[in-house]
Amino acid sequence: MHIFDALLSSILVLVIIAALGLLARQHGVLKKEMAAGLARIVFDFGIPALIFVSLANIDLEPRRFAGTIIMIVVELCMIALAWVVGKRLDLTRSQLGAVVLCSAFGTSATLGYSIVSIVFLFF
Q: Degrees (nearest 5) of the Cα angle 118, 3, 106?
């Protein structure tokens, strides 16, 4: 399965789930008070499961790792750069740790959250 197909099917699943959620909300099946619990289920279980299922069927080829290797190198460079800049600014140990961590991994962990937040905006 091509990676575009996996991504497209994942997004399609999210759109279908969102549409079903909107229909259920309009017909009174889902209450507004349930939104926080449902969002937590989606964030904690749904997205990781969706990513796993989408990636589990992809054939691993060495050329597919180029982007991963580039990302690792970029993150290591950002860690080094943030550490050097933080040392020059005489940051405390805890401040330096926060700057280094945020510089390297700032938004990569929350990439899927923005999509889900938009989809579940109507709750």
A: 50
